[in-house]
């Protein structure tokens, strides 16, 4: 996710600000491997949460991100709860069902260069930015026009008590499954690493203390797996959990006309915006149940994340099994240089920093 933590801080409903102007490392990787760049825009990503927009808080967040959180954005966000819609940490379902789309632009062709010059990197970067802007300009009005449509599947018999909007008591069971699926996923994504550390610390003071040094040894010996293709698990990727997660919003995948992929080549999908948590790339591209994966079954899809996330105890095993890899240069080069082709890496150039830039109801 090239935009990094900056994109995450700027995430507010209805506003899109992509962090890409100074992010050129992904362009160099694409040139060295001859991998086409595919611009991907996730409309609705910034509508899932709201966050406090305060300059003093922003400075504190940036300090914590740089020195204490290994690049992870310590954002303060608010969504909805399990039984009410007014506050909580679950992504909002409103509007996402009608406007949530992943729009994939026509791949920007790349000529393989072992040692690209700064001028060549700048030239390709400019082409990519132009393609990204053109894609956004073409589809933002189509997306915006859907805001007036009624939200699908939402019952009309909602209750409001003391200003808190509660969910109806009687809803289809599949909606409960979907909400539970997204709540569990959010907990793992946001707090899985910390929970894993706390579990390990707790075990040190029990009769199972010996499991901790064994697991620590395994993690150390296995520390490079995130930079050498990961360790996907087909069984885990087909859990019903991911099906309910996809249907919660739901997520739709739309390609521009003439969009096609060559199974003998490797592609770098550059996804915008990052949002608080990158739901779009996770559910619409990396999810085995997604329409995209069904349309391109011959491709192996990986999701590039911060290197720290493939090192944190316990949660790293789930992430690797799902198909995550490190977003380091070494990892990207490994995946994109595979001679057999048929590999897609989803990267977010704006990264978590992009989340700062989103504000409700505003369009660039």
TrEMBL record:
<dbReference type="GO" id="GO:0019432">
    <property type="term" value="P:triglyceride biosynthetic process"/>
</dbReference>
<keyword id="KW-0444">Lipid biosynthesis</keyword>
<keyword id="KW-0812">Transmembrane</keyword>
<feature type="transmembrane region" description="Helical">
    <location>
        <begin position="182"/>
        <end position="205"/>
    </location>
</feature>
<keyword id="KW-0472">Membrane</keyword>
<dbReference type="GO" id="GO:0004144">
    <property type="term" value="F:diacylglycerol O-acyltransferase activity"/>
</dbReference>
<protein>
    <recommendedName>
        <fullName>Acyltransferase</fullName>
        <ecNumber>2.3.1.-</ecNumber>
    </recommendedName>
</protein>
<feature type="transmembrane region" description="Helical">
    <location>
        <begin position="67"/>
        <end position="87"/>
    </location>
</feature>
<comment type="similarity">
    <text>Belongs to the diacylglycerol acyltransferase family.</text>
</comment>
<keyword id="KW-0012">Acyltransferase</keyword>
<keyword id="KW-0808">Transferase</keyword>
<keyword id="KW-1133">Transmembrane helix</keyword>
<dbReference type="GO" id="GO:0005789">
    <property type="term" value="C:endoplasmic reticulum membrane"/>
</dbReference>
<dbReference type="Pfam" id="PF03982">
    <property type="entry name" value="DAGAT"/>
</dbReference>
<keyword id="KW-0443">Lipid metabolism</keyword>
<dbReference type="InterPro" id="IPR007130">
    <property type="entry name" value="DAGAT"/>
</dbReference>
<keyword id="KW-0256">Endoplasmic reticulum</keyword>
């Amino acid at each position: 996710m090239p935009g990094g933590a900056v994109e995450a801080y700027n995430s507010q409903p209805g506003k899109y600000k992509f962090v890409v102007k100074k992010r050129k490392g992904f362009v160099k990787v694409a040139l060295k491997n001859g991998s086409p760049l595919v611009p991907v825009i996730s409309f609705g990503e910034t509508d899932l949460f709201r966050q406090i927009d305060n300059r003093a808080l922003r400075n504190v967040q940036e300090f914590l991100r740089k020195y204490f959180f290994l690049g992870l954005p310590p954002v303060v966000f608010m969504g909805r709860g399990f039984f009410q819609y007014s506050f909580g940490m679950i992504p909002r379902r409103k509007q996402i069902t009608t406007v949530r789309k992943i729009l994939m632009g026509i791949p920007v062709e790349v000529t393989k260069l072992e040692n690209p010059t700064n001028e060549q990197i700048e030239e390709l970067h400019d082409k990519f930015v132009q393609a990204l802007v053109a894609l956004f300009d073409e589809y933002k009005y189509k997306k915006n026009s859907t805001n007036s449509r009624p939200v699908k599947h939402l019952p009309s018999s909602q209750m409001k008590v003391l200003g808190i909007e509660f969910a109806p008591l009687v809803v289809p069971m599949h909606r409960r499954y979907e909400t539970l699926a997204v709540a569990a996923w959010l907990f793992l994504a946001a707090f899985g690493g910390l929970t894993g550390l706390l579990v390990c610390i707790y075990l040190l003071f029990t009769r199972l203390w010996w499991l901790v040094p064994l697991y620590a040894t395994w993690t150390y010996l296995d520390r490079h797996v995130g930079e050498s293709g990961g360790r996907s698990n087909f069984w885990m990727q087909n859990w019903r959990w991911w099906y309910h997660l996809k249907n919660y919003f739901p997520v739709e995948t739309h390609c521009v006309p003439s969009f096609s992929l060559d199974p003998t080549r490797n592609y770098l999908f550059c996804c915008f915006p990052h949002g608080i948590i990158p739901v779009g790339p996770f559910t619409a591209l990396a999810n085995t149940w997604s329409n995209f994966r069904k349309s391109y079954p011959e491709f192996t899809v990986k999701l590039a994340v911060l290197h720290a996330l493939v090192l944190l105890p316990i949660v790293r095993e789930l992430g690797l099994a799902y198909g995550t890899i490190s977003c380091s240069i070494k990892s990207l080069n490994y995946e994109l240089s595979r001679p057999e082709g048929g590999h897609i890496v989803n990267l977010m150039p704006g990264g978590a920093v992009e989340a700062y830039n989103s504000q409700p109801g505003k369009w660039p």
